[in-house]
Amino acid sequence: MTRRAAATLILALAAAPAAARDPVLRFPVDCTLGESCFIQNYMDRDGGPGAADHTCGPLTYDGHTGTDIALHDLAALDRDVTVRAVAPGTVLRLRDGVADLGDPTPGEQDCGNGVVVDHGGGWESQYCHLKQGSIAVVPGQRVNARTVLGAIGLSGRTEFPHLHLTLREDGRPVDPFHPDDPVACADPAPRQLWQDPIAYRPGGMIGVGLSDTGFDYAAIKAGTAAIATLDPLAPVLLVWAHMFGVKEGDRVAFRLTAPDGAVLMEKTTDILRTQARRAEAAGMGRADAPWPPGIYTATARLIRNGTDIGTGTATLTVPRAP
Hints:
mainly beta, Immunoglobulin-like, Glucose Permease (Domain IIA), 2 domains, eight-stranded antiparallel beta sheet, four-stranded antiparallel beta sheet, 2 helices, 6% helix, disordered N terminus, 17 strands
């Protein structure tokens, strides 16, 4: 190699991008995105008083510094959904003992039960809202990318069960879905820090169910609203859809099908306000005769600009009347 070529190589290595030293992250929750969990909020990349995620979409809020990986309902807490480290490192500090109360008000323990892991090179990750008593590591412990840290809970400042994950470099929050600046809204495939790139979902269906009572959003959020069997003499049959990332102008299309395949109900509802989460419902009353026995099927579709961005199906059984 000539002296000139060697000098050129040294300069090239010196100019190598910082991305070469970035951590490679593994998804930290034992769940399947789009099935048993979803990303409710991304990091706020707006930089001002407004809020926008890395696609310039609304799945964030002003000043949000992390990624919220959410479970579908409160009932999922009983499954102890495992949280793992995103990369090798050392546990810096932790907190346990905060009750799983879901306190939405600001306070000294906003993160609730949490763990901070040092990955070296100025990088660290923080895991918030863990379940009380679930933390399985101690300060100073070496962890790898699959070490169990704890389980998703409802501790700290939160209104729904989720993991809030914050990644920092030298104390500055970094967006693992788009670590580079500036954010370009038209960028179809930004560089990610995830080992397996994660597709962006602009919104979708959390759950669809059937009920024999009026609309009860608290029961939907708790995971107790859906029924599997309907009394033949029940006065109403309600189809509900629980959604995330809805935008003004979206539509929700409901369909209810009888055991013989006949369509009993079709209804479309317009979404009038952009919201992080929303539930809609459509129902029908029973005729004079009992509900015919068999399996009833309900479907709900979240539609944006003419395209389905989330669908769900639910069934229940009507036994034969005595």
